[in-house]
Write a structure and sequence with these properties.
heterotrimer, A mainly alpha, B mainly alpha, C mainly alpha, A: mainly alpha, 11 helices, about 70% helix, B: mainly alpha, 8 helices
Amino acid sequence: MNLSPFITEILQVMIVLGVSPAYVGWVRMLKCWSQGRTSPGLFQPYRDIRKLFAKDVILAENASWIFRFTPYLVFGTTVLAGGIIPMLSNDLPLSATADVIVLVALFAIARFFTALAGMDIGTAFGGMGSSREMTIASLAEPAMLMAIFTISLAAGSTSLSQIVQVIYSGQSLLRPSIAFAFIAFVLISLAETGRIPVDNPATHLELTMIHEAMILEYSGRHLALIEWAGMMKLLLFMALGAVLFFPWGIDASGSAAGGVLAFMFLLLKLAASGVVLVLIETGLAKMRLFRLTEFLGSAFLMATLGMLSFFILE
Amino acid sequence: MDLHIAAQINSFLAALVLLTAFGMLVQKRIYGLIHLFAWQGLFLSLNTAIVGFVAGRHHLYISSVLTLSLKVVLLPYILHVLIHRLKIRKEVETVVNVPMTMMIGIALVIFSYNLTAPIRELSTLITRSTLAIALATVMIGLLMMITRRHAVTQIIGFLALENGLFFAATSATYGMPLVVELGVALDLLIAAFIFGIFFFHIHTTFDSLDVEQMAKLKEVD
Amino acid sequence: MLNPLNLAGSAISLLLGMAVLSLFLGRRPRLLVIVSFFVAAGASLAATVAGVWVVGSNITSQAVMSIGLPDLPFHLRLDPLAGFFITVVGLLSFIVSIYSIGYVKGIIKQRPITRLVIFYALFLAGMFMVILADDAFIFLISWELMAAASYFLVFFEDERIENRRAAFLYIVVAHVGAIAILLSFGVMSGLATGFEGFHGFTFDAMRQAQFPAAWATVAFLLAFFGFAAKAGVIPLHVWLPEAHPVAPSNVSALMSGVMLKTAIYGMVRVTFDLIRDFPWWWGTIVLVFGLISAVMGVLYALMQHDLKRLLAYHSVENIGIILTGIGLAMIFRSFNFPLLAALALTAGLYHTLNHALFKGLLFMGAGSVLHATRERNMEEMGGLIHHMPWTAALFLAGCIAISGLPPFNGFVSEWLTFQAFLLSPSLPSPLMKLLVPMGAALLALTAALAAACFVKAFGVTFLGHWRGHHKPHIHEADWFMRLGMIMAAALCLCLGIVPTLVIDWMDNVPEQLVGARIGTTAGAFGWMWLTPVARERASYSGPLVFLVTLSVIVIAYLLLHVRAGSLKRVPLWDCGFEKVTARMQYTSASFSMPIRRIFGFLFSIREQVKLNPLAAHRTVPVRMQYTLRIRDRFWGWLYRPIIDVSFWISRRVGRLQQGRIQAYLIYSFVTIILLLLFPR
């Protein structure tokens, strides 16, 4: 039975929307286990989001329309990004809409508006979060681009479906350039999704916040949308890593059985990535803001080494 | 194991050698430096063994074992003991900041790639593409000696440089004659002992191993 | 007879006529403003139509006028390249002229505006003439007209000494550049016809000529230097942040938006059209200077707290990005990859068009803020979004466009530039293959820093609370100003959503210059998808990204807004600290602090904090004074030595002026003897 690509597309978006809170729940569960605590369960993020949707929205008196618009924009761009990454099938209609660079730009515009929302209320915390977030983003961009460049050298394209196809059918598994690009990608994902060692997503101390400080003023359904979009962003970055570097299991035929198999593989890869993420987060401590230049500089170094080894060794 | 896979593994190990070289360049902790040096030695000996297998030069097996015992086990152990006895501070200061050193390192890699391009055209060995990496490792070792303030780290830079030279020999001509290898290995060992003695001397005279202090030895101010 | 050249020519005559007419209408400023700017808008619109027509239909028309030197009448030419730049200049001039009607009406109360109107018309005429010029003589005359008119425009508020200094610096650098351009044309014309008569100065003669490699390099370097001085490339950028802020905002919009583009036009014309065969290292020079300008420009902009200076430094950055595209095009062309060169050239030219629009929009927004608050310093502003909602929303559109974010136009040209970079592995030289990707990384850094800078600019100016001490009464801009900004913002959005149509239109330009077109591949998959080289390579669909995001937002809003009425407004949450003031917000200097710490080694920065404690308890600060001084290192390295040397030379030469009659008689006597002695 062949599924129409549009059905696969809608299914994928539903899966991204539905599975991302569970993924975040899985990561939190693993973290609790590794720290010897009892976890609130895999489905706690669902309950959190449902609770937030039911609550009232409290706005400061001088919040402008940008503050109210940002949660919807962030949610919208993240959902679009969820539709672009070929997680289940290589034949999605939306994958011609955007290549990897456009994907990065979609996250960038979400970040732009979140930073503006941080500055909107006029407290010091919001400004601090915006300032730090934009600085980290500007340091992560060159590394991200170099990693994309290295992958596109190997695949001859920046279109995600094309990359999947080339790497899937490639003979060589041990390519130093891809390995270096992978390490760079891991470091950049930590920076973009705001995990330790860049930012602590569970902190309550305002002076240590980066992403949280920008959204400190949000409440009710706005906060629900932003939190959900944050969960989706984490899932999408992990999925992007899986798609670019471990693409086995992605369905190219369009059949329903292939789709189900792809979904199983996706869950497996996400579970494994959760384990790796928790290992990194538990093993490292959050870095000082100005140490991040070295962190992101090493990400850039890895990506550049990947590019250089493509030319030198391959 | 056919040629293609061997060449791939060779390239992969070369990339790892370069990675450890850069790692040593930016590493700030002395124990980390020693561990990275040990890893570099390990990758190097593995590489030598594989090249020996594919090219059929059996003396490379002996080099590989020699590298393993010397650079992975013995020299790191000696350095460990030295650092422990001298009670050195575990942090290393650099002359230039870390991102700048990384940029210079990348520039050196590009430079060595450009330099070895003609050799790559002419060579018929399977290891021809790794010559650029070897040359880069030599230069990064030299860079490490220049940008560090601590005498122990300068020694490690010197050892990394020697690693690069060894790697270059393997890539260019499938290794040096065994006699030469044994001689070089013995020289290294003696050098390590002599360094140890000198470190004690410097430490007692200056009370620190910071090489900037040796500027006090100048006659003219 | 309606052909594009006539249309453009009549636009110019209309502007010149208006300049003369304005002299007579000086007594009635309101009428003068409305008439003159409407005429300017009409003329610009006519020129734009001419330009669009020429580029779309690939016509080239030439004309020789009856005025000019005896041996060299004025030659005019309108080919697709000129047509493209006429479109850029005309489009923004049209929008800014509409804006000016509202803006200049507001200035009437402060000072007479006749000067502004006259020189505005002359400025526009000069720019159009530069682009239409087909021989060196009229090119330089129009160049001078443009520079002189803009000097008087910069100089408009002449009672303040820093304005006079800024204008003086501007005119000095402009003339140094003009001399270089003149010398370059001299070299090229001399090699074209061997210095016999003036015929060599026509561009046609230069096109026919074959230049020996060394002289071609000399001509290129001189031309690059001269045009770079006008474009504001680092290190010749020092006049830009001085001159653009002090000019009236509509003039700043034009100067930043289109005057810098005439320099780009000059560079492209000289390199691709007049010289035509060049080695790869010319392109590398352009690329390197472009990248340096891009990175340094945006870093300088991040350090600014004056809104217009910040925008001026961003012009330096964007000119850098344009030069990056053009440099890549030159490199690909010299290695004989016409398709890739066409892609890079399209990226550079698209960015030219985009920059004119969004920079014009931003300066118009800044003008409206300045008009309402009388304040240029961002540190004193804040919360303007509540009083000026239209200006804020349109300025936001400009901010998103310049940061290179979808769905606006800045993203399309940056994406095309990245795609051109990603094709660099086709280059045969191993060194280029490794170095060009580093350039791509620098471009990514620039784009991200630009986004940071505009979050700062918009956030500090429009969001939060008013940071200054006395809040003036703030009113929204009037309808003409709003209309100008709306048009610019709408065009930014359209150019971002349907790039395939624009590329289809402008495809004749790369065809003329490098001999290839990308329109066929760019639109091959359908008008909605931009696929520059091949669909498998990369694709971007502007309309789909916009529509899908919009639909998700609308669906989410409708689903959630069903339970409206659960929204409460409360006072600001102050974390328990009751005395929160507006001064506790993040300011421009604090926002850029992390970036200042990381990249500060490029500037000379001095930060000082002075604490005045209570007399009784030393640890309790009563007053805190924070001083931040940031200086451009280029002044110390490059300009100050040159200034000192020139003054030294002038003093030495000044000794010739003895003041006594005998000395002057001796000079004449010696000269006569020499002249009698030598020509024998």
